[in-house]
From TrEMBL:
It is found in: Membrane. The keyword Transmembrane helix applies. The lineage of its organism: Eukaryota, Metazoa, Ecdysozoa, Nematoda, Chromadorea. This is STAS domain-containing protein. It comes from Plectus sambesii. One of its GO terms (molecular function) is secondary active sulfate transmembrane transporter activity. Gene3D superfamilies: STAS domain. GO terms for cellular component: membrane.
């Protein structure tokens, strides 16, 4: 039984190519025998586990294997010996000094978001990058403080250890606050324990190979969530800029209560703080939006206007005695020296665990997203599993010092790339600059007004708010993804950041379920003079073979879409009368003017189900295929299956499906199934089916 002929020819100009085939029209069973389908691994579970353990232990059985494993686990041992000192050192020095300068104001400002004193932001920016440099695989990401993660840390800290001014959003209803006071712990002790928990969660994810879970935080979820979180960041900074102290809220509609309190507190604003804030914002906006773009061609590295503002504000505040004359809140005491080692409070781990899981996932997603972006631009590879180890070790080890969870900063990473960095060795310079501040220069920053740090954060939020511009192209590309973005943003604005993230992930998983529940289906026709079959509604020249209908269902066949699949099959076979008592006539309605039918309908006697869309089939899916095959057979329609994937065929074998539907009815290609059906048709007497509703 010959399907067609194939060879390959091409004209001299290379414009057209012609393919032709000459082979037998195998069914799946013949195809497997002819080309030697390998047997399925049916070893006992115990043997598979033993084999997996042996593979894991194999690298540690020899000294060379152990050394190779250690080198692979500590990437710095791979790239540092090969470092090109003459070519790359100048780039890393410039990038390191630039990032170090940015770390000073950002570290202090984002510490306020984490609800801890500013000096702990400097500690975080010092320790975390050094540890990541040893274990990380990205050359360009800047590890340290990041606004969204800092806000999540601050939210967790205030929930676990509220300040006196903190209330729950439930107070509007007269109920008690949600946080439980743990008076024996200081805020930094709670945050340090949270850092340890984040590290342990990330290490556990790495050991269990759970980095795939971050796939549920799609780009749209992260972008929408971070934009919604930026609204909370914006509101939190306004009270510092106004110089007023307001209660904090927790739970749904937190943002509404904060903005309401800000509006009512306007008459009590500290006028000096407002003036300083306006001047600071104007200085930063002019510097970043006007001056830096003018010098961008001559100097790709942006001028550090954050640092300039920090120095100017500190000098002016000290000279004008803002703290005493205008009752302005300042940074105040900054201790000098490296903090001593201390163990986190392990008894707090159960309390912070839920927050740690969310922070661990978000921080990893941000890092791996930026890492992949830079790796693609500069043509190198990063290891997502190693990144989890790197971040886990960074958080776990740095928790021995008073720090809070770190992740990749978007702005600093982009600046680092623009500075031309070649390796993570730039971290030595940036951390060295921070060390100078920590050891000697810290007290000089004590007069710095807190409203200035709030302005630095506020202006830095521009990048997060500008993500709204993604909506227009996203709507054209995928309306569902656009809805995911909007939902993630709105739900984060209407709730707390922790709840917003959880609900956003739940919503995106719901969209996955809904997409699988209502997938697309297609009727396929043959393209003239080819063995290719395409949707007759999309290709004008695609023609259905007389008496044969080819159907494709683009989804795994699962319990939630089997009824839809049955309706699709019934509609495909609408050109013949199905008067079985148990058949639903609604499923047999005939669309006489269906635009997908390009030629006059012919009585269908063969139905070919293209199984290429079935990446997986569950028990109800297998049962649905049995029912469809039996029902069609009872009405004189032969059902054939084509293009079933190997795992699906193995599932059919294991489930006993071939006892109900012979294996000879399966074909490796659609064309094989059509050819076989045509030959079988010629061996039988033709007959027609009445078209009835």
């Amino acid at each position: 039984m010959v399907a067609s002929t194939e060879g390959f020819t091409e004209d001299l100009n290379g414009n057209d190519a012609e393919v032709s085939i000459s082979r037998l029209a195998y069914n799946q069973e013949q195809f497997d025998v002819k080309f030697g389908l390998l047997p399925v691994d049916r070893r006992a579970l115990r043997e598979k586990v033993r084999s997996a353990i042996n593979r894991c232990c194999a690298p540690y059985t020899t000294a060379k294997g152990i050394l190779t494993t250690i080198i692979n686990f500590i990437p710095i041992l791979q790239w540092l010996p090969k470092y090109k000192w003459r070519e790359d050192s100048s780039h890393d020095i410039v990038a390191g000094l630039t990032i170090g300068i940015m770390n000073i104001p950002q570290g202090m400002a984002y510490a306020a978001l984490a609800s801890v004193p500013p000096v702990y932001g400097l500690y975080t920016s010092f320790f975390a990058p050094l540890l990541y440099m040893i274990f990380g695989t990205s050359r360009h990401v800047s590890m340290g403080v990041f606004s969204v993660v800092s806000l999540m840390v601050g939210t967790a800290r205030l929930r676990i250890l509220p300040d006196q001014a903190i209330v729950g959003s439930s107070l509007a209803n007269g109920t008690a606050p949600t946080g439980s006071v743990l008076a024996e712990y200081s805020p930094i002790e709670v945050v340090t324990t949270l850092t340890l928990a984040v590290g342990l969660v990330q290490l556990a994810m790495a050991l269990l190979r759970l980095d795939f879970l971050t796939a549920y935080l799609s780009d749209q979820v992260v972008s929408g969530f971070s934009t919604g979180a930026a609204c909370h960041l914006f509101a939190v900074q306004l009270n510092e800029m106004m110089g007023v102290k307001l209660p904090r809220y927790d739970g749904f509609f937190r943002l509404y209560y904060v903005l309401h309190d800000l509006a009512t507190a306007i008459p009590q604003s500290n006028l000096a703080a407002v003036i300083v804030s306006i001047c600071s914002i104007a200085f930063l906006v002019v510097g970043k939006e006007v001056i830096n773009p003018l010098f961008k061609k001559k100097c790709p590295i942006p001028l550090p206007f954050d640092l300039f503002l920090l120095i100017i504000a500190t000098v002016v505040s000290h000279a004008g005695q803002f703290k005493y004359k205008y009752k302005m809140k300042v940074v105040d005491h900054i201790p000098t020296g490296i903090p001593s080692l201390s163990l986190p409070h392990f008894d707090l781990l159960p309390t912070v665990f839920r927050d740690a899981v969310e922070i661990a996932i978000v921080s990893f997603v941000v890092t791996i997203s930026m890492g992949k972006l830079f790796a693609k631009r500069h043509r190198y590879r990063i290891d997502s599993s190693q990144e989890l180890y790197a971040m886990g070790i960074t958080s776990a080890v740095s928790s021995l010092f008073p720090v809070f969870p770190a992740t990749t900063s978007l702005s600093r990473s982009l600046v680092c790339e623009a500075a031309g960095t070649k390796t993570q060795l730039n971290t030595v310079l940036s951390s060295g600059l921070l060390l100078v501040v920590i050891l000697w220069l810290g007290p000089l920053l004590e007069p710095l007004p807190m409203c200035v740090l709030a302005c630095i954060i506020l202006v830095a939020l521009k990048g997060l708010f500008m993500q709204v511009s993604e909506l227009k192209p996203l709507w054209r590309l995928s309306k569902i993804d656009c809805i995911v973005w909007i939902f993630s943003c709105v739900i984060t604005m209407c709730s707390d950041v922790m709840e917003g993230l959880a609900l956003s992930v739940a919503f995106v998983m719901l969209t996955v379920v809904l997409r699988s529940q209502w997938p697309q289906s297609h009727w396929l026709g043959q393209l003239p003079d080819t063995m290719l079959y395409r949707d007759v509604a999309q290709y004008d020249s695609a023609v259905e073979v007389a008496g044969i209908r080819v159907v494709r269902f683009d989804s795994p066949l699962l319990f939630n879409n089997v009824e839809l699949f049955k309706r699709v099959v019934h509609k495909a076979a609408r050109h013949f009368k199905l008067d079985h008592a148990g058949y639903d006539n609604n499923d047999a309605e005939i669309a006489q003017n269906d635009p997908s039918v390009k030629k006059k309908s012919t009585a269908v006697r063969r139905l070919v189900i293209d199984c290429s869309g079935f990446t997986f089939i569950d028990c109800m899916g297998v049962q649905a295929l049995k029912e469809v095959s039996a029902e069609m057979d009872a009405h004189g329609v032969t059902v054939a299956f084509a293009c079933a994937k190997a795992p699906v065929c193995q599932l059919f074998e294991a489930s006993g499906f071939y006892k109900s539907v012979p294996k000879r009815m399966f074909y490796p290609t659609i064309h094989n199934a059509v050819i076989a059906s045509m030959i079988n048709e010629q061996s039988q007497d033709g007959f027609k089916f009445d078209l009835q509703h």
